[in-house]
Amino acid sequence: MRAALIAFLFASTPVFAFPVTVQSCDRQVTFDTAPTRAIANDVNLIEMMLALGLADRMVGYTGVSGWKTLDAELREGIAELPELSAKYPTREVLLGAEPDFFFAGWNYGMKVGGEVTPETLEPFGIKTYELTESCIHIGPRPKISMQDMYVDLLNLGRIFGVEDRAKALVAGYEARLAEVTATVDPAQPLRVFVYDSGEETAFTAGRYAIPTAMIEAAGGSNIMDDLDKSWATVAWEPVVERNPQVIIIVNYGEVTADQKIAFLEQNPAFAGIDAVRNRRYVVLEYVEATPGPRNIAAVEKLVAGFKGQ
Questions:
Q1: Dihedral-angle region of residue 98 (phi above 0 means left; psi in -120 to 50 means alpha; beta otherwise)
Q2: Among candidates 89, 31, 33, which has minimal Cα distance to 60?
Q3: CATH number of 13-176
Q4: I want to staple 41 with a disulfide (CB 3.0 to 4.6 A). Which of 60, 80, 109, 127 is the partner?
Q5: The sheet that has 281-285: what strands, in order across it?
Q6: 118: Cβ–Cβ under 8 A, 6 or more apart, which residues?
Q7: Whose CA is closest to 286, among 76, 85, 66?
């Protein structure tokens, strides 16, 4: 009887074979075993790890307190983990934690030509997986889609041997997205601008940033869709000329969403913009406006905001 029970439990427990190979930007990365000492950079990447139940595989995180704050849910999820660097980590900081895995992205903890890159970490036994949205910084890639966030979760699932968990999570997100966008009319998209930060110029989302995919899913069109970048700075003149009907405010850092709205409304140059004139704003927290588990709830917020609810 006992032998039969053991055989049943073994047969019903998924076995994930290593090595596994995943695509990371323009590289293929092979993992002989699942990482046990991981570091993630930035709040959205940290939350991907938490959504997959991988906190116990982490030795720390980087890139949060120097710019952002953690809400109660995130604080609880990483309460036992140290923040190794308030902003981008140096190679020395990473090596000091003796990790075997770094989950980051270009301009999400790594810079092209910087001291922390997949190539500089590999000799120290540290494998790197790059956030898909960030791959545009090192080469051409297709336009952003909601699938990119799913791809990252599924790849992390394979890397850490929790593929079933990742597939179930993604299936739930896909079902929820279909539900919240069921009434969206794609034939008449609203003109939408993403205002991240800046006053002399505006830091915004281009065609390769996840807000573009979320805006389209919610029934809008990013007025900066022709900007061949993910996140970049633009002059205000084209914003005024393209006259957005809704402005998404990304809330983080020292300048609050209310202060950003006040700046828009107190500047006579913006008085003719439909969104400003009609006070049509949707506020997204940083963790909602960057690739991660909260993108689906963010789309739901956009759907309501685009309908004026």
A1: left
A2: 89
A3: 3.40.50.1980
A4: 109
A5: 220-222, 190-195, 246-251, 281-285
A6: 24, 27, 29, 110, 128, 130
A7: 66
Distance of CA 155 to the CA centre of its chain: 14
Give CA separation, 233 vs 40, 88, 229, 240, 247, in Å.
26, 20, 10, 15, 16
**Which two structure tokens, joined as six digits, stand for 53?**
């139940």
pTM: 0.91
pLDDT value for 16: 60
Name the residue among 134, 131, 128, 63 with its Cα closest to residue 99: 128
Q: Which residues, at least 6 apart from 4, have a Cβ–Cβ distance to it below 8 Å?
A: none
All residue ranges of the chain with pLDDT < 70 are 1-16, 309
> Quick check: 40 and 49 in contact, CB under 8 A?
yes
pLDDT the model gives residue 68: 80
282: tokens are 């949707």
Cα pseudo-dihedral 150, 302, 213, 89, rounded to 10: -70
The answer as to CATH 3.40.50.1980 being correct for domain 185-306 is yes
Q: Delimit the CATH 3.40.50.1980 region(s) of the chain.
A: 13-176, 185-306
- Give the pLDDT confidence score for residue 308 in this predicted structure: 78
